[in-house]
Structures are given as structure tokens and as C-alpha cells.
Amino acid sequence: MRYSTFNQTNVNPLGEPMFFGNPVNVARYDQQRHSIFEKLIEKQLSFFWRPEEVDVSRDRVDFQAMTDSEKHIFISNLKYQTLLDSVQGRSPNIAFLPIVSLPELETWIETWSFSETIHSRSYTHILRNLFSDPGKIFDDIVINEHICKRATDISKYYDDLILHTQLWQIHGEGEVTVDGVTYDATVRNLKKKLYLTMNSVNALEAVRFYVSFACTFAFAEREMMEGNSKIIRLIARDENLHLTSTQHVINLWQYGDDDPEMKEIAAECRDEALAIFTSAVEQEKEWASYLFENGSMIGLNKEILCQYVEYIANMRMQAIGFEPQYKQNSNPLPWMNKYLVSDNVQVAPQESEISSYLVGQIDSEVSAGDFGDFDL
Amino acid sequence: MSQRFKLQINQLPVVEIDAGSSLTLLEHLEQSGIEARYHCRSGFCGACRSVLHAGNVEYINEPLAYIRPGEILPCVCRVKSDLSLEH
């Protein structure tokens, strides 16, 4: 089916499914099938922030005082997060917008992707401050095998959905052969690919960020890299909201509150969706091993980090109807929670406990002795 | 004597709270000494999701996280009766 930027068929948006109905025409929000997405848009907009608002200048001093293994941990995490947000800054738009059918969901996808681009810009903001030439760090993202391996797994479901959608748009419903390869471009198969992609994105938002978040906040617990930690808190708050949106989409499908065919597909692909999640968890644990290969850092090691991944994975799995798969039921890093509370996220130095703000204070104590050598 | 509500959390001994308490259910969970799960504390992340077996709660803010049947979000609700829940 050819995509139209303004579908002139008169459709009732209240009767449309989230995806694979008619393309959206009027961007109207007076009537909504799933009003939750407009509420998410409002929340995301209320979270708006810019990386430049956060002072990261003190981080340079902290960074120079780090051991080599700590530098490796810090920089590797930044590279990985840069990869994740590079993908997320574009992929929901490219993969989901051509097939979305509800105005409120279309706008949510755009708002979501846009917020990821702010995250991408903040990594440059952080790195520019740490290095006079951050070029090498960015260049390594496409060379580093540990990062590339993850990049493949993160982008493959998106890429597959995008390719099949394009074939379906050009050739229509059915099997298509291109360069000797036959593709199944039926709507049923596209919906299946959409379901798997949504689960892959859900796993990304649910667990993939949390190894880096834990390292960042472990530095912050030692009062190091506080500017960076502030930015990551803002990012974590956004990611939690994005996760809520993918959980909504998956649950609406599973409960049959949207497209009945998606309910069937959700049941059919249950094992595959679970495998996507558990494989993301395993990759994050591998990532933890890579981070600590040169030595650990104070307050954190590979074992505790892997336990945290399992703890958070259990929570996230239950949210989309899976049984918790891991035995880690208590939080091994209790201090993480305080960095994830949304009200604690404040930017202006006078409103927070940033240590650099206190450094500028002067000693205001005056005693009589201070005037001892004072002549008029 | 003011009215009290009984909270049965997991399989732990029953905790009593003031019926007019302005604290959220999550705050009561924390006071009861259990390890409470939470992140955002404002209803959008869903980390505190709990299963309500019996009783009523009242939301003070509209929860944005998806609530599966039988679940509640303790961070944005207050207790309105005796409760039995799984956190």
C-alpha cells in the first residue's frame, strides 16, 4: 500500500488500530482511541531540557584523577549510550511512522524520537568538555567489536521491519522477489515483524541503558563526574517514560484492546519475544564483563552489576506479562533508586547538591583577631 | 480514637496505619520496613507496580504507566480501606 502524507479517504480514527490501518490524515486530538499517548506527549514535553543547561566543567578535573580502568568504564559506557541513542533518535520515526494509524500515537513517536536526539547531543556536550578532540571516541563506536556486536542486535529488528514495509509499500501485499531473494510482504508477516521490533525496543529501553546508568551513578555516589550524572539522570527519566510507552503498546496488543490480529500474533510470538528479552539481558551482562576487564571501580563490580541487570529485568518482564526469569529479587544497588526519582532531577546549581557550587563559597567567619594588624 | 486501616503486605505481619494518613501507599510500604521497589515516584515508570488482592485505593495523581488487571501503582495512591497486597 502506497504511503500518503495526507490520506484523503475519510476514516474514523476511533476505529483504527495503532498500526497498519489507514495512514493518518488530520493531526487531531479532540477524539482519541488511546488517549494515554497524548498524556505521554504532555509529560515528555514537561520534561524538556537542554544539555547546555548542565555545567559539566568540573568533570574534567575528576576525569583526570580517574584510574585507567575507571576511564575505560566511563568512556565505554558513553560510547555505548551514544550508539543506543543514535539508533533511537531515528528508528522509531523511520520504522513506525509509515505504518502508524492514530494521530496521538504518531505524535508520540515523533516526540519520543526527538527527545532521544537531545540525549545524543548531550553525549557530545559531555565529551567536548573532557577531550579537546573527542573525534577518536566517536570514531571508535563503529570499530569497537564489543559495541558493534550490540549494534547488530539492536538494529536488526528495526531494519527488517523497515525493509518489509518498503517492499509492501512499493509492490503491495504478497511475496516479492528482489535480487533473487523472496520476501514475505504480507500484512500478517509485517505485523509479526512489528511485534518483534516493539519487543526489541522495549528491551532496549528496559534494560540496555541500566548498566551504564549504574556506573554513572556509582561515580556520583563518590561525588565524581557530577555534571555527567545530572545529564544521565535527565536521560534516565526520559527513558523511563519511553519504556512506559512500549509497555502500553505491547499490553494493548496482548489484551486485545487494539488490533485483534495483534493479539493472536502476541500469543504466537510469545517465546520469540521472551528470547529477545533474555538475550538483551545476557548481552548486558557480557557488557559488564567488558567494562570491568581492566579492573573494577569502588562500589561496583561485575557480579553486583549483573545482579542488578537481573533484578531490573525481572521487574520489566512482569510489566509485559512474562514470569520473572531470574532469582535476583532484591535490589543489590539500593542507591540507584534515588537517582531515578523524577522529582530529584534539578538542573540549576542553587537547587541541588552539586559540589562545584559549594567550592565557590568564601569563608565568612570574622573574628577580632583578624583586625590585629589593622591601622587607620 | 481515629480509624485505623490494616495493611497486609506480602506474607508479613499486618501493619496498622491512620485512616486519614496523607502518605502514599509507597511511603507506607517503606515505613513498614520492606524493600520497596520504586523509581520515578510520580506514576509514570511503573517500577512500584503491586498486585492488590483486597481493598481500595484512591489515586492522587493519574498513573501513566500501564496497569495490568489487579495491579496498582503505590507511588501515586492513598489507602482507602484495609488492604492486602503483593509488592
Characterize the structure shown.
The complex is a heterodimer of chains A (376) and B (87). Chain A is built from 14 helices and two strands; from the N terminus they run ααααααββαααααααα. Chain A has 376 residues and is mainly alpha-helical. In chain A, strand 1 (174-178) and strand 2 form a beta hairpin. With 87 residues, chain B is mainly β. Chain B has one helix and seven strands; from the N terminus they run E-E-H-E-E-E-E-E. Chain B has one helix at 25-31, and strands spanning 4-9, 15-18, 50-54, 57-59, 71-72, 77-79, 83-86. In chain B, the strands form two sheets. A five-stranded mixed β-sheet of chain B has the order 2-1-7-3-5, with no helix packed on it. In chain B, strands 4-6 form a two-stranded antiparallel sheet. In chain B, a hairpin with a 5-residue loop joins strand 1 (4-9) and strand 2. Chain B is globular and about 35 Å long. Chain A binds chain B through residues 36, 39-40, 43, 237, 240-241, 243-244, 247-248, 251, 315, 318-319, 321, 330-331, 334, 337, 340-343, and chain B through 35, 37-42, 44-47, 49, 62, 64-66, 68.
